[in-house]
Every structure is written in structure tokens, then in C-alpha cells.
């Protein structure tokens, strides 16, 4: 069986013995995993400057305003860890698919704008959201990522052909004109105090305007009947509203972060299993959100301080709290970056089997173990884990 959308590498040439029918089905992040997408680091670049994002790595050869390919040795090391991770999942009986990289160094354009680079296809979680039998392509708010969906179209087409129950949806492609961004945002925001930045986050007064719906899939946390959408640097209120209307059979909640640079919910509010959620230990979450979970008999764990990110790798834009960006194989088994031993010990005390995975080299390409994957099939169905309502939830 040929894997969907795969450019073969040495680690992808082994025969695939799984002959189960392809089925898109994933309602949460903890039911037993059967089929997953794992990203690739091939051809990734430091993005050219754009209104939505700035990259500034003066110590690593890419000061503000510059862009270009990630170093070959970094790409090779990241791909080795991604390939080894994919092979480990296969050995556990999980079907693994990979995206098809393109030339991310090329200039791209629409009638509204021209941009001097793309980005990469390491973090599929940013683009694709599986809710039940549907795979949804997110809008993306970076011009450098506008065409990233092309890397997944071969895979999505095969899923659509092989699973007659699959729903393949794409959110409206945004125009991403200058009207979608607050002019001069970064020049102002970076001069503010921590408390001033947190106030902007609470009020959702960030880089994106409400000119059009914008969201990354990684800002959506799935808890069965309830979907939690974080408002962030890449997800606006209009994006949340689009998701709320798109999933009328779900309860879709907008939440704000308690850190100064909110970017994806999957390292700050992490579902572990029914009744247990992990929170970034840097700051407490929204009190109303915490009360809602506790009212429904959920225990909230504050993650211990990350162990391995005191000295970020070159060209990395990830927070130290990427430590909490982990992948559930089932409700009792967690894949965690191998150097995060304190976090592994903390979660093992709750009865989890911990699978340590070497993955630190992947961080500069867009995230951790959760970012690098998208679950296509998990056992289980739609469940209601929050029968009691509270406040705005």
C-alpha cells in the first residue's frame, strides 16, 4: 500500500502491512490513535518579513528583515527525528502519512499581494483540524503560509477517495490585505510592559483586525462536544465566529490566553484524558475557564518548569512551554520530548505510560510532538464531557 502524498525517504520505503479501511474519525485528543499525519522539515525557510509575523535571529545569521533557507544540518537532524518518530508510531500499529513538500523558498502572490517566501510543512497541526468525520483546512493568517495547503492536497484527496464518510472542508481563503493587520503593531507591542501586553491579550487587541475570519487549527482544543478556540496572534474573533457557525452541533467557546505571546492552545491548555487537563505553569488560566472545568469534575494540573529549553536551539521561535506539546497515543499513553524528564515524572504519577521521543531538533521548524502531527483516526465517538454550564461557557 502506498502512503498518501508521500515523497519516499529511507524511512518510508518499508512495506505497510496495515490493510484496515481508511476512516476519518477523531473527536478528541486522547482516544486510541489509529492513523496520524507526521510533518516534514524539507525545504523549510525563515520567512520573509510580513505584517503578521517578524523573525529576528541576529545571533543565528538572520537579523530582522532577512530570510532564507534553514541550515541543511538542522533540516537533516529534524527530519531524522521526524522519521524516527513516524517509524516508532508504525511499530505500534498506527498508520502514518506524510505531507508533500514544495519549494518554500519561492516567491508567492495573489492579486492582492506578493510575498518573497513561503514557510514549510513541518507543523500540520496548524493547518488541519479533524473533528469527527471531517478534516478542515484552516485559513492561516501568514501570507507565507497561504499556499501551505498544497502540501496536504495529495493526502486529503486520497482520504476523500478511500473513506466515503469523510467530509473534506476548507475555511474561506482569506485575502490577507493590509486591512487584516493593525499597522505598526509589532513596533508598539514590543515596547509595552508585561502587564500592558497581558491587558492587550485579555482584551484581544493584537495584530489581527476583524476584516475577515482568520484562525490556525492549532488554536482549537477538542473535548468531544466542546471545542475551545484560543484568540491569539493568528486567530481573531471573526475566525472563532466562523468556527462556531461551522460546527452547529458543538459548543464552541472563545478563550483568551494568560501569556504575552499567545500562539496556539496546544502547549498551554492540553487535554490528557477525560477529567484531566494540563495547563502551562507560567500563569494561571482564565479563572472562569478553570471554574467551568472544575464544575464538571475536571482536575487541572499545572505543568512543572520545562527542563530542556533554557537555551533555545538556533532559529527557534518556540516558547519553553513547548514542553507540554505532547501527543496522546491513548488515554493512558503520552509521547513527551525525551529531555522533559520532570514533566514525564509528573505525569507518570498520574498513571500515564510515558514514551520519551527525541524531538528537540524539530522545534525550530514549527513546534513539538503535537504540532508535528494531525490525528486522522482515533477510536471512539462524540461524547459530552461538560454537562454543567458556567458563566459564558
TrEMBL record:
The keyword Transferase applies. Gene3D superfamilies: L-arginine/glycine Amidinotransferase, Chain A (3.75.10.10). Residues 8-17 have a biased composition (Polar residues). InterPro entries: AmidinoTrfase. Keywords: Kinase, Serine/threonine-protein kinase, Transferase. GO terms for molecular function: protein serine/threonine kinase activity. It comes from the Bacteria. SUPFAM superfamilies: Pentein. Residues 1-20 are annotated as: Disordered. PANTHER family: GLYCINE AMIDINOTRANSFERASE, MITOCHONDRIAL. Belongs to the amidinotransferase family. This is Serine/threonine protein kinase. It comes from Streptomyces celluloflavus.
Amino acid at each position: 500500500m502506498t502512503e498518501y502524498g508521500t515523497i519516499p525517504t529511507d524511512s518510508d520505503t518499508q512495506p505497510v502491512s496495515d490493510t484496515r479501511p481508511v476512516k476519518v474519525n477523531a473527536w478528541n485528543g486522547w482516544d486510541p490513535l489509529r492513523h496520524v499525519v507526521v510533518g516534514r522539515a524539507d525545504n523549510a525557510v525563515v520567512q520573509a518579513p510580513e505584517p503578521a509575523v517578524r523573525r529576528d535571529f541576529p545571533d543565528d545569521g538572520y537579523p530582522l528583515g532577512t530570510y532564507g533557507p534553514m541550515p541543511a544540518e538542522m533540516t537533516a537532524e529534524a527530519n531524522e527525528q521526524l522519521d524516527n518518530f513516524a517509524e516508532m508510531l508504525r511499530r505500534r500499529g498506527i498508520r502514518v502519512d506524510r505531507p508533500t513538500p514544495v519549494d518554500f523558498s519561492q516567491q508567492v502572490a495573489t492579486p492582492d499581494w506578493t510575498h518573497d517566501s513561503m514557510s514549510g510543512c513541518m507543523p500540520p497541526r496548524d493547518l488541519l483540524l479533524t473533528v469527527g468525520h471531517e478534516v478542515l483546512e484552516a485559513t492561516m493568517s501568514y501570507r507565507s503560509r497561504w499556499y501551505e495547503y498544497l502540501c496536504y492536497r495529495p493526502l486529503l484527496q486520497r482520504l476523500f477517495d478511500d473513506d466515503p464518510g469523510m467530509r473534506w472542508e476548507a475555511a474561506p481563503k482569506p485575502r490577507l490585505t493590509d486591512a487584516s493587520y493593525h499597522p505598526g503593531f509589532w513596533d508598539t507591542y514590543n515596547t509595552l510592559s508585561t502587564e500592558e501586553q497581558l491587558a492587550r491579550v485579555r482584551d484581544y487587541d493584537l495584530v489581527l483586525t476583524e476584516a475577515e475570519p482568520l484562525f490556525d487549527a492549532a488554536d482549537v482544543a477538542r473535548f468531544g462536544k466542546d471545542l475551545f478556540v484560543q484568540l491569539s496572534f493568528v486567530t481573531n474573533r471573526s475566525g472563532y465566529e466562523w468556527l462556531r457557525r461551522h460546527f452547529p452541533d458543538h459548543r464552541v467557546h472563545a478563550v483568551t490566553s494568560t501569556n504575552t505571546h499567545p500562539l496556539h492552545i496546544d502547549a498551554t491548555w492540553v487535554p490528557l484524558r477525560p477529567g484531566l487537563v494540563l495547563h502551562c505553569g507560567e500563569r494561571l488560566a482564565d479563572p472562569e475557564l478553570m471554574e467551568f472545568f472544575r464544575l464538571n469534575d475536571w482536575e487541572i494540573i499545572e505543568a512543572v518548569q520545562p527542563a530542556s529549553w533554557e537555551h533555545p536551539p538556533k532559529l527557534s521561535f518556540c516558547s519553553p512551554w513547548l514542553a507540554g506539546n505532547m501527543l496522546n497515543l491513548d488515554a493512558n499513553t503520552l509521547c513527551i520530548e525525551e529531555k522533559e524528564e520532570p514533566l514525564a515524572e509528573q505525569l507518570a504519577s498520574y498513571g500515564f505510560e510515558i514514551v520519551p521521543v527525541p524531538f528537540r531538533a524539530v522545534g525550530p521548524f514549527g513546534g513539538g510532538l503535537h504540532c508535528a502531527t494531525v490525528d486522522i483516526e482515533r477510536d471512539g465517538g462524540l461524547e459530552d464531557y461538560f454537562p454543567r454550564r458556567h458563566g459564558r461557557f
